[in-house]
Amino acid sequence: MKILITGTAKGIGKAIAEKFLSLGHTVAGIDILESTLTDPLYTHFKADILRGELPDIDGVDILISNAGVQNSGEDIDINLKGTIRVTEKYGIRDGIKSILFIASASASTGAEFPEYAASKGGTVAYMKSTALRIAPYGATANSLSPGGVITELNAHIIDDPELWGQVLDETMLHRWATAEEIAEWAYFVTAVNASMTAQDILIDNGEAARSNFIW
After folding, report:
1. Are 54 and 28 in contact (CB under 8 A)?
2. Distance from C-alpha of 215 to C-alpha of 207, rounded to nearest angstrom
3. What is the CA radius of gyration of the chain?
4. Sign (positive/negative) of CA torsion 110, 73, 66, 22?
5. Residue 212 in this model has a pLDDT that exceeds 90
6. 136 three-state secondary structure
7. How many angstroms from the chain centroid is the CA of residue 129?
8. What pLDDT, on a 0 to 100 scale, did the predictor assign at position 125?
9. Are 96 and 63 contacting, i.e. CB atoms less than 8 angstroms apart?
10. Which residues pair with 5 in a beta bridge?
11. At the top level of CATH, which class does the domain 2-149+178-203 belong to?
């Protein structure tokens, strides 16, 4: 299959690309940064999902919208409007098999920077609209909402023992997900799943559900 992923230069997007490539799929990536992937089945397009021309990429079977920013002053523009722009160009058409949006646990909890949380909440709502629109093609649309993930973006937390201990204490399982774990979810939801659609999957090690019962 032909997979198009945005934000493949690092982190979750790169891990998802590597997962599909390891299984022999053709992968195209869009990012404002240069690629560090060297697999012959990978083609990189350096482009901004919000501004300028998007590349012409035909025959996309699976679209994964992952590119985004946090607390940038443009979170709603890039995370939501940019995602919509990509989806409308490549995803809303006959021949699409699946569309996946990488949202965030903050889409339901609101426990992050305000514009970031709003952008991800909007992404989940847009996912549901997308699911309705591509259902006539027999295609699915879903979103993943990770909580804490071990990536370069969170290095300032991970590398601070005191802060790291505090954030792990906020989860039931006392851990964060790895980018590779999110990639496994992305593969299953898009390439294996055929019946679940219009759903947001929370992957947060029990952070949102954690409670201390005092009596």
Report:
1. no
2. 21
3. 17
4. negative
5. no
6. helix
7. 17
8. 98
9. yes
10. 29, 64
11. alpha beta
> Residues 116, 121, 122, 126: is their CA dihedral positive or negative?
positive
What's the maximum distance between 2 C-alpha atoms anywhere in the chain?
61
In this structure, are residues 9 and 22 in contact, taking their beta carbons and an 8 Å threshold? no
What band does 1 get if pLDDT is binned at 50, 70 and 90? very high
- For 102, the enclosing helix (H) or strand (E) is strand 98-102
* Average pLDDT of the residues of the chain: 96
Q: Summarize pLDDT for 55-92 with one digit per residue, the tens.
A: 999 999 999 999 999 999 999 999 999 999 999 999 99
Collect all residues with Cβ–Cβ distance below 8 Å to 192 and sequence separation of at least 6. Answer: none
> Which tokens in the block code for residue 52?
């300028």
Q: Which amino acid is at 20?
A: F
**In this predicted model, what pLDDT tens digit does every residue of 27-63 receive, in sequence order?**
999 999 999 999 999 999 999 999 989 999 999 999 9
